[in-house]
Amino acid sequence: MVPASFSLCPGAYHPSLCPWCLHPSPSVLLAPVRAKLTVALVALLCFINSYDGEFVFDDSEAIVNNKDLKPTTPLNNIWTNDFWGSNLSSNSSHKSYRPLTVLTFRLNYLLAGGLQPIGFHMLNIVLHAIISALMIDMFAILIGGLAYDEKDKIVNLAPKTSLLAALFFAAHPVHTESVAGIVGRADLLCALFFQLSFLTYCKAFNTGRGLFTTPNNHSPCTVGDVVRTGLLTRLALMALGGLAMLYARWRIMGTGPPAFTEVDNPASFAENIFLRIVNYNYYYSLNAWLLLCPWWLCFDWSMGCVPLIKAATDWRTAWLLLLWCVLIGLTSQALCSQDSQRRRTLTLGLVLLVVPFLPACNIFFRVGFVVAERVLYLSSAGYCLLLAYSLGHCCCRWNKYKLVCVAVLLLLCVYVARCALRSHQWRTEQSLFTSALSVCPLNAKVHYNVGKNLADRGNTTAAIRYYREAVRLHPSYVHAMNNLGNILKERNELVEAEQLLSKAVSIQPDFAAAWMNLGIVQNSLQKFEEAELSYWNAIRFRKKYPDCYYNLGRLYADQNRHLDALNAWRNATVLKPDHSLAWNNMVILLDNTGNLGQAELIGREALKLLPSDHTIMFSLANVLGKLQKYKESEGFFLHALRINPNSASCHGNLAVLYHRWGKLELAKKHYELSLKLDPEAPGTRDNYNMLRRKLDQLQRSAP
């Protein structure tokens, strides 16, 4: 129940003056707690089907491959690294500094005992539900001002509008990326901390609290009132605090902006400043359209998804003109309306809509995207406030209460359905990427990601088609060329693979991965000198590149440059101590060249670092067998088979060991197991037949 008497703070209004949307009677409204629960349940209903989704898109870099989440990484690293785990001082860093977000990721990792996506998703969904519920209190203050009852509790003077706006916010489909995409937690936490700061600040305004006492609401506000209420002190403290945080952020980021490329944000690279401004404004209109009609949603809007406006005669300029007409109209109403309540609501709604969007508007600095749905998370609160207030105003003006209620219910149902569909698409990379093909068919990155997902799932034929389309749409797309070249290499289409990879490194000379892959292809084409040069180029551009050292070692081994091969593989293991292939190749090469003692030492060293690696156990067991250390060799073979019981080669070599050792029945057993697993195993059939003849001879010679 709202008490019979309550105090008003500056800017609050009396409920008798309110339109339809401002109604104090509790008899027609949900109780505050029930209202918040209703909003929270709607938020859960919209996004709950993403709870068991995978790690998708940017989650791979920010979570799966982010070493800062692991307990073995010092906690202090999150304060010096960016969102993706790279040091902020690095030239490749995006300067996205979000240590608290990374801290929550690390907490998820610890609680789940590893990378279990369900915990990450559930926390995002719960955060959105909490934020949506708190929106009721925030909207109530923005619309109705601050009013207190006799128990010093804030009274909601706009219960209908605040509830309706919060429901719109809870169910708005543009939030899907922030809620269903785990990296969107940064936007969720930003909104939550903003709400908590705002509500805490407002609570400090109650009468009788020192600096935060307020003058009589019915008397004009004088300079003395402003001084007495502590407004100047509060503004000064907030300004100093804000400047201090900006300075700290500037210092932490290394005082330099991140480096983005033209494909990330083509408008920001336009030489003509007029066209640059026109395209920026067109981007703003696209963001406004996503708020108005959130049906065409895409995980990425770069790389041709939004072609640049290159002339004033482009028909799309009509959209940005329409946007500014609407904004100017709303601003004029906010400043010049005779209705003080309308001025207040429109002003604060526009501020909440525009101010959170400013960091993404390219005015202060270049951003690394064209359109990003996640940056609209907090701005959408301003839109929802304006929408709810407008519906209330229409209902009051035209006396169409039932019609407005039906429209609101229909809109909420559409929102919920769209959220459910979109959050389902965010569950897997396959559904997320393919859903973008109809929204942004000209986006090369969309085709690239579809192709990559298909390749990861083994469908290389379809992947080739999408990679080729990505290269066609964006002829300098080096990552698509690199991946396509890799697939062609695996299909033994080496000439075209070499052409693609050569083109990739000519476009981006510091593309280390493409240099390495080019070296692999050239090695397969027996262009050994070119391959060696490509490998060294890769290492020049990426100093710590263990996989490249490994492939360089394979090149040297093919040329019988055994010492160079061993040195290259040793470098690989120094840079990456768990590089199993490099360790194993060293053991095998030393074994093949007769250096059995050194091979044994290397094998034992490797197993100290990789105690469960059955391939190294297998190679070391072979060496020990040749050294006639049969018992130890048998132990390693059996241990390897416990880990990988279906290894035909391991059964076959263990059989050879038993054959040499004189344990013929055991040799027969493992020969048969090897042939059962692989009837075409080289040499095994001959060895088995030899053993059978020996056993027959022994039987015939037995008394």
Automatic annotation (TrEMBL):
Pfam families linked: TMTC_DUF1736, TPR_16, TPR_17
Protein's name according to its UniProt entry: dolichyl-phosphate-mannose--protein mannosyltransferase
Residue intervals passing through the bilayer: 125-148, 280-297, 317-336, 348-369, 375-394, 401-417
Membrane association type: Multi-pass membrane protein
Gene (UniProt): TMTC4
GO terms for MF: dolichyl-phosphate-mannose-protein mannosyltransferase activity
One CC-aspect GO term: membrane
Single Gene Ontology BP annotation: endoplasmic reticulum unfolded protein response
Gene3D superfamilies tied to this protein: Tetratricopeptide repeat domain
Family that this chain belongs to: Belongs to the TMTC family.
Organism this protein belongs to: Scophthalmus maximus
Domain of life, source organism: Eukaryota
InterPro entries, alphabetized: O-mannosyl-transferase_TMTC (IPR052346), TMTC_DUF1736 (IPR013618), TPR-like_helical_dom_sf (IPR011990), TPR_rpt (IPR019734)
